[in-house]
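Ticket #4471: structure export looks truncated?
Reporter: QA, pipeline team
Priority: medium

Steps to reproduce: submit the single chain below to the structure queue and open the exported record.
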Amino acid sequence: MRKLISMLFLAGAMLAAPLAFAVPEETAMVNVNTDDAATIAEVLDGIGLTKAEAIVRYREANGAFADVYELVNVKGIGEKTVLANVERIEVE
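Actual output as written to the record:
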């Protein structure tokens, strides 16, 4: 009986697995040159409202970011945070 239950569980898992990959999840994007602090904080991992506001202040003082990696110039944002979010950040 236990073997039958295990086999049914495994079969169910195998049938459900393709469903998890059938529709690719769209990655939310944020443009650090145009979006507001609330949007930046919502989309980027490890960036709360305070850091997002720092991004907006930095771009207002220094101009648009030419490259995603320029975000490390914002106080409180390190390379690790930028690398974790690079797929979500636009600068154009």
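Status: closed, not a bug. The export was complete when the record was re-opened. Leaving a note from the reviewer for reference: Confidence is low (pLDDT under 50) at residues 4-10, 19-24.
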